[in-house]
Amino acid sequence: MKEFVRIASGQGFWGDLLSAPYDQVTRGPVDYLMMDYLAEVTMSIMQKQRKRDSKLGYARDLIPLMEQILPTCVERNIKIITNGGGVNPLACSEAILEAAKKMGIKKLRIGVVLGDDILERIDGLRKKNIELKNMESGESLDSVRDRLQSANVYFGAFPIVQALRQGAEIVLTGRTTDTGLTLAPMMYEFDWPVNDWNRIASGTVAGHILECGGQASGGNFSADWRRVPDMAHIGFPIAEAYPNGDIVITKHEGSGGLVTMQTVKEQLLYEIGDPKTYITPDCIADFTTIHLEQVGKDRVRMSGVRGRPATEFYKVSMSYFDGYTALGTLTYSWPDALEKAKAADQVLRARLADLNLDFEEIRTEFLGHDSSHGPLSPQHEDVNEVALRVGVRSQSFEAVERFGKELAPLILTGPPSVTGFAGGRPKPSEVISYWPALIQKQAVIPEIIIKET
Q1: How far apart (Å, rounded) are the C-alpha atoms in residues 160 and 207?
Q2: What is the 3-state secondary structure (H, E, C) of 61-76?
Q3: In Å, what is the CA distance from 407 to each residue of 188, 361, 389?
């Protein structure tokens, strides 16, 4: 058994810093590179891509990235774990294998985790009395069934562990929990039992710290952002995991950013509900038991985490078509910039009302005045410029399209000193809404397929 394992965060979302994975595998020793690409809305985007082309449906950025880092990862025996497979991890694995062949890389084994995509199984599951009600509202799935775009089960770490046990050097998954991507190599390397709840909880918390990339190492840091050094070259966090469940959060020496108790605490508070009951497919972690200690420069030790048995359910992330939206912006300059923008908003709303257009929502923000804090914003009337941003939402494509045609006329038929209108009329885009549900674990079985050159 290894003394410790170093798991590096390489991506916090699809579109994160492109240089981060390369830096993680070249600037210092790591054993695993974990990359998180998926969010709820990402799955629906990928489903649309796959419907247009059966070879798509994954994070396409992943292929040129693999071309860049694979030689180093193979040379240094760095394993890669990512949910960038999206809704088509098999096609993603084929694309990576093709890239590996072109680079002359032989005997590369990719573990593909399947089974999370249940979109085509929805009706069959419901016939088995698996209702998939909205877990927040209790609403029946009947109300959105014919508009579903995607439906994916959140698997945890164990399918990844199985793939690693089968010799996978890269593990590609679909909708796996962010935390499972980091927990899995600890379970594999240290042979943690699936019911060792405290250590499983510790690995889960470590995964929560790593899941947002540079946010744990000085990025988006609110406590004292001015003292974050060299943010342009920020080093993403690394979890140095030990067999007893202790974790040291660190980063590569010489990289930008910083790892302190404050940066780690900020990330720990990100996107959690009840801190005593952080539910994942692998365990329930109690964040109130976490003990942190600064043990060196850019080194924070985490220990004492307590966990409880996992629930009998997986969470299901579904998305459905929910109408159309459009967003337009006009900028008003000093003097009286805010007053002009407010008057323009009233003119626009009156014209939309005259047309009897059916909108579920019309939302106005005054950028530079209240778009961040709303009614809590300080009242500064005499500002240099204000961007009037108006958005509409409707089930009617025609209503949203007509809104786009009403914005530009304000330039010459509204208050003076307008600028910043570019890119043409706002165009309607589809609204994709979120439907969370629960499903019993025995209803969905993960499948692991090994692909190799």
Answers
A1: 14
A2: CHHHHHHHHHHHHHHH
A3: 57, 16, 10
Judge whether 250 and 259 are in contact, CB under 8 Å: yes
Q: Which two tokens stand for residue 330?
A: 């006009």
3-state helix, strand and coil shares in percent for the chain, rounded to the nearest 5: 35, 25, 40
The pTM for the full model equals: 0.94
Three-state DSSP class for 245?
A: coil
Residue 31: how many CB atoms within 10 A of its CB? 19
pLDDT tens for each residue of 386-400? 999 999 999 999 999
pLDDT in tens, 189-248: 999 999 999 999 999 999 999 999 999 999 999 998 999 999 999 999 999 999 999 999
User: Sorting pLDDT into bands at 50, 70 and 90, what band is 48?
Assistant: confident
Domain topology for 322-433: Alpha-Beta Plaits (3.30.70)
Q: To which H or E segment does residue 323 belong? A: strand 313-333
326-330-335 Cα angle (round to 5): 155
Domain residue spans of the chain: 5-116+154-311, 322-433
The two structure tokens encoding residue 301: 């030790």
d(Cα 117, Cα 50) in Å, to the nearest integer? 13
Q: Which residues pair with 212 in a beta bridge?
A: none
Place of tokens 């410790």: 4
List of residues 6+ apart from 165 with CB closer than 8 A = 188
